[in-house]
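Fill in residues.
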């Protein structure tokens, strides 16, 4: 037991000693030991193509499901990589989310390591919690995520203490549901939500019972014409109107702050450096040893449309660009602060 812990510590030390651009700017180095998955030490049974992609087909509750995996270029069976899942928006797909999120870019790093990026595919382009999601997807999308985590652990070398999840729009709403679901949030260290559609079934309010303090970061444009920053205030009482209501993002963030043990108004408000278009509300400190450090962050981007924030336009980025790249400037540094201790 003692030897095993020592080995883990040694591995962690060696890994964080490898040079990387991020280590210079990182406010602290990760101190939790990494936890290698059972897939470490042997080459993956899955075939990866020349672009380091594999599309995995699996079965969940009699549904055929798919997810796209991107391995780091230098994938090594003895390095426990962090994992980031990223869920597409309504009518989207895995490839589009890979393009929009830039998570597969070679330059992305988390805790001085490259990452394994995973892009699950929703049934008919939608995720559980949206009123337009397949009725029989009920609960099966959450089981799909458990299956993905099981399969990744068994087949690849990853750091089980550093698994993270993110999503855009309907995929952001689904991520909120995942953050509220103890069977998932005990395996996922932190969550990132971009322009999320937090329908009632995504548990934006009091029905969210996460069972632990969950680090959550959300970004939302106040020019979003599809998922309004100030919510949808329909007073219609029809069934479909009730399923489609969306929260005021400010209240939504405060609900998370309260769940994590903060005062609703106990935030500090800052601006992103280099732009006056990004306002940031932060609950919780920066001290790793402090329970209260489990942060909630809300980014309001002035005038921004319904996008995964990035400074460039692309296939899935028809709208005007954002003043920052969410993935490398905000999301990965946020994730880096949090590890599970399984
Ligand atoms: C999974 O299914 C898709 C489409 O049905 C196919 O293109 C792909 O090659 C399959 N992947 C594997 C590993 O069999
Ligand atoms: C959303 O919440 C904020 C903060 O409480 C408030 O200032 C704003 O008026 C709310 N918007 C709507 C449309 O209720
Ligand atoms: C609900 O909306 C209708 C019209 O959209 C309006 O006439 C009515 O006053 C509203 N009721 C409440 C309680 O806000
Ligand atoms: C955002 O990412 C794009 C694509 O890699 C890059 O061209 C651009 O310089 C990045 N922007 C910033 C502000 O880092």
């Amino acid at each position: 037991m003692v030897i095993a812990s020592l080995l883990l510590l040694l591995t962690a030390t060696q890994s964080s000693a490898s040079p990387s651009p991020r280590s210079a700017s990182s406010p602290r180095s990760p101190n939790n030991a990494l936890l290698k998955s059972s897939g470490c030490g042997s080459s993956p049974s899955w075939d990866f193509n020349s672009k380091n992609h594999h599309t995995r087909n699996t079965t969940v509750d009699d549904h055929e499901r798919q997810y796209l995996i991107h391995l780091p270029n230098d994938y090594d069976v003895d390095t426990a990589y962090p994992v980031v899942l990223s869920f597409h928006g309504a009518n989207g797909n895995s490839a589009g989310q890979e393009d929009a999120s830039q998570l597969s870019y070679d330059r992305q790093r988390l805790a001085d390591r490259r990452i394994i990026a995973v892009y699950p595919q929703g049934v008919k382009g939608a995720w559980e919690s949206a009123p337009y999601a397949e009725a029989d997807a009920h609960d099966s999308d959450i089981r799909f995520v458990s299956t993905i985590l099981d399969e990744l652990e068994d087949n690849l070398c990853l750091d089980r203490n550093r698994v993270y999840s993110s999503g855009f729009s309907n995929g952001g709403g689904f991520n909120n549901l995942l953050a509220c679901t103890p069977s998932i949030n005990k395996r996922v260290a932190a969550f990132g939500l971009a322009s999320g559609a937090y329908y009632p079934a995504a548990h934006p309010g009091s029905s969210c019972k996460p069972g632990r303090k969950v680090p959550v970061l959300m970004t939302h444009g106040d020019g979003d014409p599809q998922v309004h920053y100030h919510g949808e205030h329909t007073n219609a009482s029809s069934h479909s109107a009730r399923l489609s209501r969306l929260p005021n993002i400010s209240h939504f963030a405060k609900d998370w702050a309260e769940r994590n043990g903060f005062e609703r108004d106990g935030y500090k408000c800052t601006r992103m450096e280099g732009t006056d278009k990004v306002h940031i509300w932060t609950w919780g400190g920066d001290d790793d040893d402090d329970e209260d450090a489990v942060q909630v962050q809300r980014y309001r981007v002035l005038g921004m449309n319904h996008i995964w924030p990035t400074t460039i336009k692309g296939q899935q980025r028809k709208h005007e660009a954002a003043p920052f790249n969410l993935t490398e400037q905000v999301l990965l540094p946020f994730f880096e602060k949090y590890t599970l201790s399984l």
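Residues 1-31 have pLDDT under 50 and may be disordered.
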